[in-house]
Amino acid sequence: xxxxxxxxxxxxxxxxxxxxxxxxxxxxxxxxxxxxxxxxxxxxxxxxxxxxxxxxxxxxxxxxxxxxxxxxxxxxxxxxxxxxxxxxxxxxxxxxxxxxxxxxxxxxxxxxxxxxxxxxxxxxxxxxxxxxxxxxxxxxxxxxxxxxxxxxxxxxxxxxxxxxxxxxxxxxxxxxxxxxxxxxxxxxxxxxxxx
Length: 195
Ligand code: GRF
Hints:
The protein has helices spanning 18-27, 47-54, 63-69, 72-76, 94-99, 123-131, 167-192; strands at 7-12, 33-40, 58-60, 82-85, 104-108, 136-143, 153-160. By secondary structure, the chain is of the alpha/beta class.
């Protein structure tokens, strides 16, 4: 756990968990990377089944305590090198951002700074992109600060939006991009970490 090569990931996820699954699969067999913990606020989340199957510890959190403490002590005990948000909708409290500077990243299903901010998640994003008659959408991987979808951008990849696209078809395209690139970018960031 503590050797210099070993890197620990903590994933915050409260939805279906398809990105979490891709990240787990990507690092399977890699002795240097451990998915140490999944943090979740939704008892009905699909990601919990994934955690059980993969034997990954889960920390269930409540809104009040998260806002007050960020569960910083519990999370620190897993010695995360990177905290990954993958379908986690609550704002990250300042206390947690301050405890893990440049160590928390998020994936957003659009090309930030467009179509971001409070309430902009899931199909609401795709619906707004289609109503806005955008020719392109995509994914943004960015550092997390105490504002929604605001931190420094690490990576973006785009896809075409055609006249025939629906919320569902666009959501599918975006998920494909997320699944392809999120694990690779995480891998790259972990390799850049010196500790
Ligand atoms: C992803 O589309 C991501 O952009 C967003 O939440 C969604 C999570 O999907 N932040 P899943 O739970 O990984 O399937």
